[in-house]
Specification:
Length: 82
């Protein structure tokens, strides 16, 4: 079984071994590894990097994946004015 996640113009393929599912933590770390650099760049440009560390973004991503939230719902805290 393959799970496809679309990030920007890139397609990330997460493989799941038949009979075992990827844990939410593993999925969050895999997705975060792909979005970390562009996200840090955006936060640096908008001068919001001090408020959003890796330690705060990863649990938020995990929560978003567990509850099947949309990408917009995940990004909302980073897009709103401080």
């Amino acid at each position: 079984m393959m799970i496809y996640i679309y990030l920007s113009s890139r397609q990330v393929k997460l493989s799941v071994v038949a009979g075992s599912a990827m844990s939410s933590e593993e999925a969050a770390q895999t997705v975060f590894a792909r979005i970390e650099r562009p996200m840090r760049k955006y936060l640096r440009i908008t001068r919001r990097q001090p408020w959003h560390s890796r330690d705060s973004v990863l649990p938020h991503l995990l929560l978003s994946l567990k509850h099947s939230l949309s990408a917009r719902a995940f990004l909302e805290p980073f897009l709103t004015a401080v």
